[in-house]
Write a structure and sequence with these properties.
Length: 325
């Protein structure tokens, strides 16, 4: 069976839900789904984000209701129906329940929430339904709540780079460490750490909002090159060169760039990507400075350079690499 896209952004929610039910009917009818169907479905998704939301909600309803048996739909009649007809009856009933606002499917009206995460050393690129791209760095966790007229993402931990497809009619917000970052058409990086958050803007504009310890509102609108640094008691903005901003994003290519930074800072950054950490017990050694580009997974290469250039001692133990005099 081949389906064509026939819904439009102007159609009502009930009509969109009914169309989504038709798509699901075809998808779950054994032997009826094809590559042509999949391509047509993706085209239908691209027409309006409401289409994909409706489809995902109905699919979730099916999974959570254990094939709708909890609702006790009667599938058999005196005259047997085809399997396809039974599926259409099921999904048509679900669409009707949604249109009527039935309590059993109240959760279908809620925004769809997705979770994305990476392990230590991992990276991942996520494409949202509106065409926006998010790149997750090592040990990062994000939750995304996508609604028809808004998108809210929580950066629970880690670091991510955002390329947002700006739509003035649709609000896009990132929340990290108590700060609200609102997209105004942009490319930006957010890094959430234990005691503060950094927001670096490459293109466009973003606003960063929070409250200080006394509850006083704080807000900054960033321009390209600005980096907002927010602690629990303050929000400040500094400027960085384009090169510095790009160096900070070198993890997207699997590298880290250090430009005359202390060994302590370099090691802290590199350790984020590896389970075997570098340890520098001596504060005087930790203050020594280093420059260079390293693979995020190459702690051995970093230690070797410190040994060769700074004439330091490297003790490669089972659980850690210790650098000392």
């Amino acid at each position: 069976m081949s389906m064509t896209s026939n819904a439009s952004p102007a159609k009502s929610a009930a009509e969109i839900d009914a169309a989504a039910a038709d798509w699901l009917t075809t998808r779950y009818d054994s032997g009826a789904w094809s590559e042509e169907n999949q391509a047509a479905l993706e085209t239908w998704f691209a027409e309006d984000i409401a289409h994909e939301i409706a489809f995902l909600r109905l699919e979730a309803a099916w999974e959570r209701a254990n094939r709708l048996t909890a609702l006790k739909f009667e599938l058999t009649e005196a005259q047997p129906k085809s399997r396809s007809t039974q599926w259409k009856a099921l999904f048509g009933s679900v669409a009707a329940l949604i249109a009527l606002g039935a309590g059993a499917f109240e959760y279908l009206s809620r925004p769809h929430i997705q979770t994305y995460a990476t392990d230590i050393g991992g990276r991942k690129t996520v494409t949202l339904a509106d065409g926006s791209h998010i790149e997750l760095n090592t040990d990062t966790h994000i939750r995304a709540e996508i609604a028809r007229d808004s998108a809210t993402l929580w950066l629970d931990k880690g670091e991510a780079y955002f390329e947002i497809k700006h739509d003035p009619s649709r609000k896009f917000v990132v929340i990290a460490s108590g700060r609200t970052i609102t997209d105004l058409g942009t490319k930006f990086r957010v890094k959430s750490q234990a005691d503060h958050v950094q927001v670096a803007l490459l293109e466009g504009r973003v606003s960063v909002e929070s409250s200080d310890a006394a509850g006083k509102p704080q807000k900054a609108v960033l321009q390209p090159g600005d980096v907002a640094i927010g602690y629990s008691h303050s929000l400040s903005v500094i400027s960085e060169s384009r090169k510095d901003l790009e160096d900070d994003l070198s993890w997207r290519k699997g590298t880290v760039v250090f430009d005359n930074v202390s060994l302590a800072d370099a090691v802290a950054d590199l350790n984020r990507y590896n389970t075997k950490h570098i340890v520098i017990p001596d504060p005087a050694v930790a203050r020594r400075r280093i420059a260079g580009t390293f693979r995020t997974d190459d702690v051995q290469g970093f230690a070797a350079l410190a040994q060769d250039l700074l004439k330091l001692r490297v003790d490669n133990r089972k659980d850690a690499i210790v650098i000392s005099r």
